[in-house]
Amino acid sequence: MVSSENQRILVWLRNDMRLRDNPALYNAAEAGEGVVAVYVLCEDFIERHSTAPSRLDFIRRHLRQMQTDLAERNIPLVLLRVRRAGEIPHQLLSLSRREGCHSLYFNAEYPLDELNRDRAVAEYFHDHDRHYKRFHDRVILPPGKVRNGQGEPYQVFTAFKRRWIQMARELPMVPHGLPAVQPKALGQVSDAGMTLDSLFRGVHLKDLSALWPAGEEEALSRLAEFADGPIRDYKSKRDLPAEAATSTLSPYLAVGSLSPRQCLTAALSANEGRWDEGSEGVTTWISELVWRDFYQHVTVDFPVVCKHKPLQGHTDAFPWRDDEEDFNRWRRGETGIPIVDAAMRQLLDTGWMHNRLRMIVAMFLTKNLRIDWRLGERWFMSQLIDGDFAANNGGWQWSASTGTDAAPYFRIFNPVTQSERFDPDGRFIRKYVPELARVSTRQIHQPPPVPGYPAPMVDLKASRKETIALFQQLNGSSSKG
Ligand SMILES: Cc1cc2nc3c(=O)[nH]c(=O)nc-3n(C[C@H](O)[C@H](O)[C@H](O)COP(=O)(O)OP(=O)(O)OC[C@H]3O[C@@H](n4cnc5c(N)ncnc54)[C@H](O)[C@@H]3O)c2cc1C
After folding, report:
1. Is there a single domain that holds both residue 63 and residue 24?
2. Which of 65, 56, 46 is nearest to 384 (CA)?
3. How far is ligand 1, taken at its centre, from the CA of residue 355, in Å?
């Protein structure tokens, strides 16, 4: 048993499941006073945020790895479970008292629920004469820092990106190394909390370990492999779902077994340190990392998006259709539009979907079926192993034309044209929709009747026209009002 003297630092792990480039862990370990790590599973957050069973299992597997990796550095990992987020302040304070920790360190998370949770913990610690320190690891530039000439947040991505690059290139882009090994005598806890099995008891889990092995070694090797080759063709091939042309790092970034800074430094070193020239593949990929930061900033600058509301307030009056049967057909991948069905089945099978397809299916749901984007947003979170509030909300509000720098309401993707362009030989469709395996390449995007495969559930042209008219009415009435 460790003395109850306050001598150690408590590090609260959340979506930062890695040892390297983890500022909270690194800085706590540098103090050399001993570190205790803790993870808190919150049942209420799982329910409210519709966390996918595949993502929960991914978290579970990461925790197992973290327990081993941290133990090698004499850092014990305590596992706790709470029903409600409101219990967390008390649980963390009790733990810090019991295990002799004078301070709490954690890396920031930006959606409103998480910010409120962390504020409550910080206040509670402050009220009980304990310190806390918040670090930023989830983004390359922390929210609140990237501002236009008037000191306001950017709403247009290209302007944000220009300023972001100016600022980021001034930073020392050197990721933190491994946290220091702690004194062995300080590497014990009197109560390790729950076992990993009991932590997840009764929680619905989906094992996708064959597709998505856990851990930071896996994440770093995927990054190295991508930066070593495919990144160069990223610009020309990233929209082709049948190709393995994107990094597939999103699950690792979401759970935090990889940091965006590690991604950026790998990209820069593949491009001789150049940010916006050199390999077009690399600079295009860097842009995606900026999109990632952009949406994290949006959640802080415009917290209305965290309240199930559109960023463009007037679009809340849009007459979304409430049709459960249509929604279910979309969810199951039985719409009769091959590219949409292949994409939705990719999501069900793998917990992941290619970016071009996310845009196609989100537009189809919101613009052709006219079903509320919030239902699609929630369904994605309930299925995605890379579910991330900021990126998902940003993607849905972009597709529904309700968000910041969103797709204009009149620019509606035609899924058949998209399919012809981005899956020209139908390879992706055939992989996920076996009913269409024998249909010719010429017909695969819009097949003739095929036994066992449904006819298109909606007239693409007519529904597109109707949606545009409804948006025009909405904009007309909002500009009059
Ligand atoms: C409707 C919709 C929902 C989405 N939901 C999520 C989500 O829940 N989680 C998530 O991580 N991404 C989401 N995205 C963004 C994007 O589709 C995925 O990040 C990307 O497909 C992941 O594949 P990758 O790792 O191979 O990406 P790459 O193309 O290799 O890109 C590298 C990284 O950049 C980031 N990134 C890329 N594109 C975007 C983008 N448009 N917005 C924000 N970050 C981006 C991701 O972290 C990604 O891993 C969504 C997009 C849309 C249109």
Report:
1. yes
2. 56
3. 6
213-260, pLDDT tens digit by residue?
999 999 999 999 999 999 999 999 999 999 999 999 999 999 999 999
Query: Known binding site for FAD: residues?
Result: 234, 246-250, 285, 288-295, 386-388
Q: Which residues contact 305 (CB under 8 A, 6 or more apart)?
A: 298, 299, 311, 393, 397, 403
Q: Specify the CATH number for the domain of residue 128.
A: 3.40.50.620
> In this structure, which residue's CA is closest to atom 20 in ligand 1?
355
How far is residue 24's CA from residue 177's CA, in Å, rounded to a whole number?
A: 12
Q: Domain check: are 129 and 149 in the same one? A: no
pLDDT of res. 174: 87
Evaluate if residue 457 carries a pLDDT over 60: yes
- Alpha helix (H) ranges present in 257-333? 260-269, 280-301, 324-332
Query: How confident is residue 1, by pLDDT bands cut at 50, 70 and 90?
Result: very low
Chain centroid, CA 400 distance in Å? 19
From the CA of 247, give the closest atom in ligand 1.
30
- Active-site residue set: 288, 291, 320, 355, 373, 396
**Is the distance from CB of 324 to CB of 342 less than 8 angstroms?**
no
Number of domains in the chain: 3
